[in-house]
Amino acid sequence: METLILSADEVKSLITMKEAINAVEEAFKDYALSKAIMPPKVYLYFEQGDLRAMPAFIMGYAGLKWVNSHPKNPEKGLPCVMAILILNNPSNGFPLAVMDATFLTSLRTGAAGGVAIRYLARKDSRVFGFVGCGKQARFQLLAIKELCKVELVKAYDINKKAEEDFKKFCETQGIKCELRKAEDVCDCDVLVTTTPSTEPVVRDEWIKEGTHINAIGADAPGKQELEIKTLLRAKIVVDDIHQALHGGEVNVAVSKGLISEKDIYASLGEIIAGKKKGREGNEITIFDSTGLAIQDIAVAKIVYEKAIKINAGKKFRLLDLE
């Protein structure tokens, strides 16, 4: 009865973006079909950021991710987000594995964006705009690359070094990237926003009909990347209704009484499961991504099962079982 310990490098070697996209899609569907258990996130708020406990049971595994969000960490030489995940056997509670989940958090968030594009973006989408050029923008792009023919990426970030680094990353992927003003970036087929902003960074007048938006950055109360006007004229799809109302892109509009739960069209899982239709015509669609524990367990399942198969990681007797 030993627990498997997996480092960041080991985790990275055990899962691909394609596998993550398929796993996250299945997780959304299972959740919509009531085949999963996911209590609400628990937050600990601090002056400089927060810590979140994210438990879930899905696909035969239970687990908990413990993750922070500290936007000013790069000034201290640390990532904004760091996480570990404990994977448990639900039949007896034994901790099967403890693994780095910083990479998994980025991977599964990118994968969720990819799943949303699969169901909500126009099939002929070729031009992709990015407002925010940090780490998550790269993972969103990797997911897009798995699903779409990318002819051009347009990118904007208030941090010019981040812009340049993202452009170089695009070039390593064989993708043409042009650095533009935010307004020009929004003239695209699919717009991806990945900022920690608490006020709109994308104006409604910049968004044309037929655009799909992956709104990734807002994941806590008070965060907001889009003008509320855009929400009012779009089909809004969320990963989880309760999390979105609390801390997703819609949370500010809801807190001001400008939209309510009835204005949310569907969860992405409902669309995947066939309960609701996806894109219809030339509408504006928004995927409000808050990040779900079911996503974490779905990708951790792949990592753990591969690790066992090839004898990766190290096993330790962490618990006193006497």
Structure, explained:
The chain has an 8-stranded parallel β-sheet. Strands 2-3-4-5-6-1-17 form a 7-stranded mixed β-sheet. The protein has a two-stranded parallel ribbon with strand order 11-13. Helix 2 crosses helix 3, helix 2 (17-32) packs across helix 11 (293-310) and helix 3 (102-120) crosses helix 11 (293-310). It has 11 helices and 17 strands. The chain has 2 domains: 3-105 and 294-316, ornithine cyclodeaminase, domain 1 (2-Layer Sandwich); 123-291, NAD(P)-binding Rossmann-like Domain (Rossmann fold, 3-Layer(aba) Sandwich), CATH 3.40.50.720. The chain has helices at residues 8-13, 17-32, 102-120, 135-147, 160-172, 182-185, 228-232, 241-247, 251-255, 268-272, 293-310, and strands at residues 3-6, 42-45, 50-58, 61-69, 83-88, 95-100, 127-131, 152-156, 177-179, 190-193, 198-202, 212-215, 224-226, 235-238, 266-267, 285-288, 314-316.
Query: What's the end-to-end separation, in Å?
Result: 11 Å
Number of domains: 2
- CATH fold-level label of the largest domain: Rossmann fold
Q: From the alpha carbons, calculate the radius of gyration and give it in angstroms.
A: 19 Å
Mean pLDDT, nearest integer?
A: 96
